Each structure stands twice: as structure tokens, then as C-alpha cells.
Amino acid sequence: MKRTHIVLLLLVAGLMGTFVASITSTSRSVGFAVAFADPGTEYKVSGTLVTDMPIEYDPQHNTSLTKFHMQDREGVVHEVWLEKAKPTGLERSESIDLYGQANGTHFRATEMLMKCPSKYNEQNHLVEADA
Amino acid sequence: MEYLGEWLGVAYAGRFLVALAFVSALVATGAFWKGNLHLGRRAYLTHAGSTLGVIALIFVLFFGHRYEFQYIWKHLNNDMPMRFVLSAFWGGQEGGFLLWMFWHNVLALFILRRADDWQREVMTVLSSIQAFLGVMLLGIYFGDFQLGLDPFLLLREAPNNIGLPWTARADYLTAIPQFADGQGLNPLLQNYWMTIHPPTLFLGFAACSVPFAYAVGALWRRDLTSWIKPVLPWAFFAVGILGAGILMGGAWAYEALSFGGFWAWDPVENSSLVPWMVLVAAAHLLLINRNRRQPTALFSTVYLSILSFLLVLYSTFLTKSGVLGDTSVHSFVDSGILPQLLAYLLAFVAMGHLMLLEDVGSRKVYGGLAMATLGLVAAGQPALGFLTFLGVMAAAAVRAFRKEFKGGQDEDALWSREFWMFVGSLLLVLGAVHITWQTSVPVFNLFLEPFAPLLTWAEGATGLAFLGDLAQHDLAPGTDLERTYHVVQVPLAVLIFLLIGLAQWLKYKNSDIKTVLVKLVRPLLAAAVLTGTLVVTYNFATHEIPRVALLFATLFAAFSNADYIVQMWKGKLDQMGSPLAHVGFALTLFGAVLSTAQKDIISQNRIGDITTLNEELSNATDLLMMQGDTLPMGPYFVSYQERRQEGIHVMFDMAYYDRAPMAYKAGDIVVQEGMVWQALTDHHASATFDEDVETQWNFLPFPTPAQTGRATRWVNGTAGDELFALSPRIQLNAQMGNAPEPDTKHFLFEDLYTHIKWGRVTPPETDEEGWLGGQAQEFVVGDSMFVGGVLLTVDSLRVIRDDERAERGLLDDDLALAACLGLRRGPVDEVHDPLYIVRGNTVVPDLYEAEGWGLKFRVESFDPEQETFEMTVWEHESVRRDFVVMQAVLFPQINWLWLGCILMTLGSFLAVRFRVRQRKSTLRRHG
Q1: Which of B332, B433, B475 lies at the smallest CB-CB distance from A15?
Q2: Does an H or E element contain B705, and which?
Q3: Smallest CA–CA separation between A77 and chain B, in Å?
Q4: Which of A60, A82, A97 to probe by mutation at the B interface, max B CB count within 10 Å?
Q5: What backbone torsions phi and psi does residue B512 show, to the nearest 5 degrees?
Q6: Nearest-CA residue of chain A relative to B167?
Q7: pLDDT band for position B467 (50/70/90)?
Q8: Which segment of A82-96, B272-286, B552-566 scores lowest on mean pLDDT?
Q9: How buried is A4 (Cβ within 10 angstroms: 0-12 exposed, 13-18 middle, 19+ buried)?
């Protein structure tokens, strides 16, 4: 057996290990129902901002706490406590990914990703002008 | 109807040139393919000329502010300084494609100028790429199907405007004010990074096409060795430029965007990093083969050269198609050309893979199979179709490898440079595979979808839970992105850098390992000593061992290559490209790892006792700053001085002061841990109170109210000399929402990076009398809040006594409850008690003003069971102070990162120059 082959074999073994590692570190996004059935465990929950509920951020009180309501993909609404300053563009977000855990009645998120309208393909629509 | 004032001529000319560019690219492809170089060149020059014409016309429209054109209207407005016209040009997808085509043309002109005997093959491939890109600009509709985005589309022709009443007016341009100004380029893109980052990155992408074209050409000719020499400088050129482009993106993120760092493993960043990693591997394999009489690993060499270009296409597809969805902050939306982008990707995947097969027969078989799988797509099974398509391609590659590339290779010696370069390249590919795997998770979900029933069945049959997870087809990248990537990338990087340090000293063919080891002693020692120093200085924890190992490996690679330069320097730069680039690469990673691992968020919130007041406060990394206050922050004192507006930016001026020890005079009174102390002598405070307590302070067991009144909290430091000022800002952006932009103070060995997390861009709205606020909040006894610079605490609730009724203007039958509020501003302390009055069955609103405090209260409701009440609080603008929430991070040793970038780019260019010269001299010798 050639040395190159041994190296190749080792690398393929490494590759398989990599994939096993990445599958285990790949998490699933769940609905609030799952997260609240298992409080204290880290989950990812995706959904959208409930725009008719207020976003509470009072930096004089706490600079790193933002409270808002999110509706998950199954339609369940829960209050979210995000342990961060209010992210810019939260109001305009099209969808939200939360990372965190259920805690009593609210979902306590340590990390959040938002999808906002693209900065490249802005959805500019010319409003209908008076003719 | 004839519309007035439109520059229709430009639209017609532009569309003609777009069509001409497309047709001439097709003609060039055909002509070069058939070997008609003369026609091919002419057609290609026509193509290049018309592309340039298209670009020139768009610039004419930009400078003419022709808002009847959709592209101009979307990316320009009257306020935009024309120095950003380049950014505006490539701000949209159309401009991006044109930029890409432009760079292909520049590169093609170099190829055409040189009497290269690979011209026919290379130009066939390049022309075909241009034809595909040309389609992206056609903007033809077949029913609802849109082919390409027309950069010369008039606003009134845009699909969402057709039929609107204004399109029926001939004078719409002058009659309707909206056409006097455009939407404008998103202010986020109005900075100089946007002027230099996209062209560099696109030149890098375009440069990846050349190794691809050569590799396909080599497969076409079935001559897998003689393409290597001419392609080498191109490969290193692409490595250098693409690398620079990626790092510029990082620099942009760090300097101008508030991401809080330069790299975030975002899918968009990853998708440009992956082609680069594969290209670096390909370039090293090319180098190995250039230096061997007997070629080796030709399959990998060819395949990786092809793959890097395919990955560029894949990256374009991922970022522009909207597939990435929520996983990226750089979101792009589907612009309606998704099928086309996909066709573009698949066509070149097919070209690259089918060409690997030698005989035309099997090319036809596999090509036919691939077409058949696309039938599945047409039949409404896209995921299945694409999956089988990829399966067919993989089968073609495997077959080609087994039939045509196997055998006949002699073994490299263990201590030869090429063997370890090969290993290093494979490690890079492995890293690239891992990143692609992680980035492609949203794509996997699409592929998993049709198999959901099957997987659910399999889960039931086998009881394996992860099959059920797969069946849900909603896999998400790990919650901790850094950990997800680092667990694989860090060990790989350690190995790669150790190899970079080792391989430079090895000779091609074989070397005496003992001599090499002797050479390695110095860099190893130096790296070990420096790593040790860093571990001690920065106090690395045990769980950071992988990071420390990576620091060691990068230092070893840097020292080893630097030592190589010193020892091998013969006054000639030629051979020094490679070690220089490697020193640069090592320093880049060194700076990145050290500054990220040791970044220090110094903006902890230390104002007052706020932490004890609410248990919700957990990871406060942001500092609340009232205007005029001077607060300690890390090694500085910082003061928020002023808010001002400059163009589209609201600037928050922050002054930074030296940290001087606090000077106390004899007789000063302080509070420390709840006890009151009086200074015995004039002295400067030590770092902690304990150091001073014996000698400097006298405990006051029974302080008088006067003493308590003037007591201050003991602090060890105070603001000294003003050192510098920073103005982090908020960009006013009507389109995207206001966006924070950081301001960074650069020092030689660290950066102070600050950005505004929350701040007002306009003064808050007040009523006529200057009151603001007025939102009802729920309170319970013990609650506290800051309002108008006042600390408000709810002390108690009490029922109003009968003897108080008269003075409070209450009737005899009224039920009244007083909310006793403690107000505290500095040393002043008062209790105020707004009332909650129930008269009969109705609540009588009672507005209570706290005289001299600038505060007004009204208790709205009371819940006797919960003992909570709702109260509205107003503050007067005269007492209100502006405040911002700021985050400040110290990034130590980050300048090594930038120095490394510069050295790496410089080294790559030296390598290109060397290879070009080498090639010229061989050509002369043979010619």
C-alpha cells in the first residue's frame, strides 16, 4: 500500500469524523411547544415578531434586556426575553431565529438572528401616484 | 403614445449592446470551439466592446440622474455624493453581473494578447461563461418566466408598475414629483469599502475562471501536464486577489458595520472562503506537478481547479437565490432569476464533470443521464431531480478516476516537499468540505423534504431517532456557530500551519530530514517562548488549549518562513513570494485568533446599584451613559458629551480620559460597603479600599445626617487628562432602518472598538408644556426605576387618614390610597405620594406633580389582591438628560491580522511575477 493511500485513508476517516461531529452539533429548530415542554434545555425556535404587541426596551432599567412577543411557525405566541440590547431593525424583521430556553412563562433567548429586508434587493415599490 | 423627456435612445442602444454582447459571446464560443481563432478573437473583441459600452451607458445614466430607468432610480438619489457612483453601479445584481463580466474581459484580453497555445480551449470556456452571464442581463419575458434582469428597464415598464395610472401620462416625468429623485443607494453601502471590496472580490471570482478554463482545456486535449506551467501564475493571481477580497470584506465588517468583529462564519463569508481554500489546494498541487518530471495526483489537480470555480458559482447561487433564508445576516432575496442561476450552476457542473471522462461515448451516456434527471425537475420533483443529477456527476467523476487516472504514479519520498504539500492541500480541502457542509444545511433541508415519509418509516423500523430528525427537514446549523466551526477548523488549521512551517525547508524530490530538523530548531524555540509569554500575559484557560496550539502553530509557521527569507535572501525577491505569503497567512490567523480569544468587553454596566435592583440583569455588556456623566470604563474614563448630526449620521461624541488615582482630602466622607468613613489625611486612593483603610480612613459609627448627606461612594480612580475622542454613530437610513456604525481607536497593539447599541436620533416628543413620557407601567412595593436622572423607588402603599383629607382636597366618602415614592437625585432625598382616589364607583384621576423634580405621576389603577398598581410617569424636558447605550471592546494584537493580509497579498504577487518570468524564460529557451 502506498503512503499516499494511507494518508488518503486517514483523511477519509477524518472526514467521516467531521460529519459525525457536524451532525451532532447540528441542531433542529423546534416550536415553542417543544421548548416549553422541556424548560432549561437549549433550543432554536423560529418565528415572526408579533407586531401588534409592544417591544419593551428600557435601557435605563436594564441595557441588556428586550422583551417582545414572537409567534412560532406553528402559530404559538410567547413572550421572549432577549438578553441583549434591542437589535436595530427588530421592528422590520421578516423572521426571527431564537436560541435559548423556556423559563416559566417566557422564552429566554441568549442569541438571536433576524432576517431583514435585503440591503441589496430593497423592495422599492413606487407608490401609486395621483394621476 | 410618446412619452416626454425619456432618454429612450440610451435604452435602445443599451439593449442592443446587451444583445450584441450575448450573441457575440455565443459566436466566440462556437468559433473558438471549432478552432477558428480569427473569428473567435473578433467575436470576443466585439463582446468585450459591447459589454464596455453597456457599462459606459449605465454610467451616463447615473451621471445624468435619469430616474426614468429603474436601475438608476433604485440606486441613486440627488443627495448621494457622486464619489459613491461606483458603489451604486454594483449595488444591484445587474451591476454585479456586469462587474464580473468586465473582469472576465480584462483577463481574457491578457490571454488573447499572449501567444498562448492554450488560447483556443481557454477562450472557448471563457466565452461560454460570458454567454451565460450575458443571459442574466437580457430581461426577456416568456409569459411569466423572466430571463435575465434588464439594466435598461424603464420604471414604467417594470412589471409592478405596468397598468398604473401614471404610466398613461406622457408627461409623467415632469408631472409627478416622485420621478425627480430616486430611491437612492442604501446608506449602508455608501462607504469606501463598498467601492473597493466588491471589485476586488469579483476580480478574484473572475480569476477563478481561468484555472477552470485551463483544466477543462487540458481534459479536452487529454494533455494533463502541459497546461500546468501556463496556468500557475493565474492560479496564484486568483489566490492573492480572492484572498485580499475576502479579507477586505472582513475589514469592512470590522470598520464600518457593527457586527462586533471581522469574521462571523456567516454563510456569505463562508461561501467566498471555500472557493479560496480549494483554489489554494489546487494551486499547490499544480506547483507539485510543475516540479516533478513524473506528474502525480493529476486527477486531484484537475478536479480541484475545476471545483474552485464551481464553488464560486455555488456561492453566487447560495447568496443570490434566497435559499439561505434565515441563516445569514447578509440576506438577499430571490430576484426572479433563480432558475437561471441554477441552470448556470448545473451547466458548468456538468461541463466540468463530463469532461473528466475520456471517451465521447461515456460523456454522452452520463450527459444523457444528467439530462434525464432534469426531466424529474420538470416533472415537479426538483429535489429528487437535483439529487440524482449530483449522483450522476459523482458517478462520472468516480468512473473517470478509476478508468483514466489510476496507476502509473511513482511514490513521493517521505521527506519531499511535494508529499507534505499534498497532505496540506488535502487538509485544506477537508476544511472546505466541512464549511460547505455546514453552510449548506438549508440546501440539505430542501433535499431531505421528498424523503420525509421514507425517513419516518425508517425511524419506525429501526428506532433510530436521528432518522426522525432528518425527516423533519428543518435542520439548523449548531446554536453556537463558533463552536460548530472551530471544533473542526482549529485542529485542521494547527496541522496546516505546522506543515507550512515544515514544508518550506524541505526540498523537492527528497531532503535530508536531519538538516531540516536543525533548521527548524530556531523557529520552534522562538514560537514556544512567545506562546509561553502569551499564555502568561493573557492568562489563557485550560479549555483554550486548542487555541493556544493554534497560536503556537501560526507563530512557528511565521518564524520558520521568516527565517527562510533571512537565510535564503540573495538580494532577489523572486523566490521570496512563497515564504512571504506564508508569513502573512500565519500572521493573519495569529492576529485573528489572539484578538478574538482575548477580546475584552470593557463596557460593563456599573452605574449605581442597578444590578441589585433587578434580578433580570444577567450579561450586561453595554454601558448606559447619561449625557455629561463621566464613568469608568476599562482602562479609561469616558464621558458622553454631545449628540450632533452630520449628513446622514447622528454622531455621539465620547471623550476618553486617562485613569488617574482619586485624590481625597482630609475630612472627606465616603461610603464603602454600607459604612461611612472619613479621610484622615490628604491622599491618593490605592487600587482597593482595603489597602487604604488602616492608614487613611476613620470609621464613623454614628454619622450625622449632614455627614451622610455629603458622603460619596468610594472610588479608586477619577478622570485624568483627555486622551482622545471617538464618535460612534447611527446612520439614518429610511430604507433599512437606522444602523449603528462603530468608531475605533487604533493603537499599535490594540484597538478600542465602540458602537452605539441604543441611542436617540431625535429629541423625544413632548406636549406643549414640555412633558414627555406618559406610558402607564405596573409597579409593586420595592420596585425602582430611573427617570429624568432620578432614582425612583416605591417605598410603600398607605391608606389616607381622615385628618389628611382636607389638605389633600378629598371628600369625606372618598377612598384614597397613597403610593409613597422615594425620589433621589444625588444627595437630595424626598418622598412624594400621588393618590389613587375612588369616589363612589368611579376613579377620580389625580395628577400629582413633584415640585422641583420635573416629574408628574398619576396612579391609574390598583389591584388589592396582587398589591400592584399601574402608574403613569411623565418627566419634564428640563430635567431630562439624553443617554445612550454603548458597547466597547478591546481587541488586542489585531494589527498582526492586517499586517498579515498585506504580506500575504504581496507574497502572492511576487509568486505570480516569479512564475510569469519563469515561464517567459522557458518559452525563450524553447522558442
Answers
A1: B433
A2: helix B705-710
A3: 19
A4: A60
A5: -85, 110
A6: A131
A7: confident
A8: A82-96
A9: middle
Q: Which candidate, B786, B789, B785, B875, places its Cα nearest to that of B825?
A: B789
Highest mean pLDDT among B150-154, B168-172, B509-513: B150-154
Q: Is B601 helix (H, G, I), strand (E, B) or coil?
A: strand
A 3-62 → B contacts, CB under 8 A: 3-4, 7-8, 11, 14-15, 18-19, 21-23, 25-29, 42, 44, 46, 57-62
Instruction: Tell me what pLDDT residue B494 has.
Output: 95
The residue behind cell 520552534 is B524
Which H helix or E strand runs over A112?
Answer: strand A106-115
Which chain A positions have a beta carbon within 8 Å of B620's beta carbon? 62-64
And the C-alpha cell for B839?
A: 369616589
CB contact under 8 A, A62 and B620: yes
Domains of chain A: which residue ranges? Answer: 28-115
Residue B911 buriedness (CB in 10 A; 0-12 / 13-18 / 19+): buried
What backbone torsions phi and psi does residue A58 show, to the nearest 5 degrees? Answer: -125, 90
Q: Which residue of A has its CA nearest to B296?
A: A4
Least confident of A52-66, B190-204, B554-568: A52-66
A60: nearest CA partner in chain B: B786
B612 falls in which pLDDT band (50, 70, 90)?
very low
> How distant is the alpha carbon of residue A104 from its chain centre?
20
C-alpha cell at B672: 464603602
Asked if B438 and A119 come within 8 Å (Cβ–Cβ), the reply is no
Of all residues in chain B, what percent carry a pLDDT higher than 90? 43
Q: How close A71 gets to chain B, by Cα (Å)?
A: 16
Per-residue model confidence (pLDDT) at position A120: 46
Strand partners, B819: B797
Pairing outcome for strands A27-30 and A43-49: parallel
pLDDT at residue number A20:
62
Q: How confident is the model at residue B227, as a pLDDT?
A: 93
Residue B177 and residue B640: Cα distance in Å, rounded?
41
Residue with cell 464613623: B700
pLDDT at B261 over 90: no
Q: What pTM was computed for the model?
A: 0.86
Does ipTM come in above 0.85? Answer: no
Angle between helices B228-256 and B192-221 (to 10 degrees): 160
Query: What are the distances in angstroms from CA B862 to CA B786, B797, B798, B831, B871?
Result: 22, 10, 12, 20, 9
Residue in the block written with cell 507539485: B288
CB B95 within 8 A of CB B151: yes
Bridge partner residues of B147 (DSSP): B140
Q: Among A22, A61, A121, whose Cβ lies nearest the Cβ of B786?
A: A61
B758 contacts on A by Cβ (under 8 Å): 57, 59, 63, 85-86
Distance from CA of A52 to the nearest CA of B (A): 16
* B154 vs B166: CA distance, rounded Å: 13
**Homologous superfamily of the A28-115 domain (CATH):** Nucleic acid-binding proteins (2.40.50.140)
**How much is the CA Rg of chain A, to the nearest whole Å?**
21
pLDDT band at A24 (very low <50, low <70, confident <90, very high): low
Q: How many CA atoms lie within 13 A of B477 on its CB side?
A: 26
Buried-state track B449-473, b at ≥16 Cβ within 10 A, e below 16: eebeeebeebbeeeeeeebbbbbbb
Residue among B685, B689, B684, B682 at smallest CA distance from B666: B682
Composition of chain A by helix, strand, coil, percent to 5: 25, 35, 40
Q: E-assigned strands of B471-608?
A: 475-476, 600-601
Choosing among A8, A72, A97, A122, which should be mutated to test the B contact, i.e. which has the most B CBs within 10 A?
A122
Return the residue of B nearest to A15 by Cα. B430
